[in-house]
Design goal:
Immunoglobulin-like, alpha+beta, single chain, 175 residues, 2 helices
Length: 175
């Protein structure tokens, strides 16, 4: 069972990394991080937002790649890959993000409803700790499937003196 989950997590990371690498291969900026972030930010800021992309992995495992767009005047963009394991009835979630506003901790969540709504929390991934290059990765395994749900993914940062407030840095609809 753990080998299957590990294989699905690696596949999700490879798919997200390949998507970011294919975009960065078309640019000529100084660092790989900047090369990946610049075109994704242009696409996310365009008038035609990127839509989720469905795929099937090894003809058994349905998956979806969900792009996230910046919100609240940030430049944070990313890719969330979800792969459903029909045998275990679990979904592997891998979140890759670039352009975090600063160092610190961010918490990625899957919520009910569309971006901008204050829906109930469906699943929270482990915190993302921003690297010195303002990038981060998180992954987890949630029970059940993402298919046919009206959910969205949001990346939050704690705010306020005691960290009880939160503000979103990026968001993407799963449908």
């Amino acid at each position: 069972m753990y080998k299957r989950i590990l294989a699905l997590a690696v596949a999700g990371a490879v798919i997200a990394g390949a998507l970011l690498a294919s975009v960065s291969a078309r640019t000529t900026t100084a660092t790989p991080i900047a090369a990946a972030a610049a075109p994704i930010a242009r696409i996310a800021a365009s008038s035609t937002p990127m839509k989720p992309y469905n795929f099937t992995l090894w003809s058994k495992y349905p998956g979806r790649v969900v792009p996230t767009a910046p919100v609240n005047n940030t430049k944070t963009v990313g890719v969330v890959t979800l792969i459903y394991d029909k045998l275990q009835k679990e979904t592997v979630v891998v979140w890759v993000t670039v352009g975090l506003p600063s160092s610190g901790r961010f918490f990625p969540q899957i919520l009910e409803g569309a971006c901008g709504s204050n829906g109930s929390k469906v699943y929270q991934l482990p915190d993302i700790v921003a690297s010195s290059h303002r990038t981060g990765v998180s992954s987890g395994v949630m029970e059940g499937s993402f298919q046919g749900k009206q959910w969205h993914v949001s990346l939050y940062r704690k705010a306020g003196a005691v960290g009880l407030q939160r503000w979103a840095t990026s968001c993407g609809n799963l449908y």
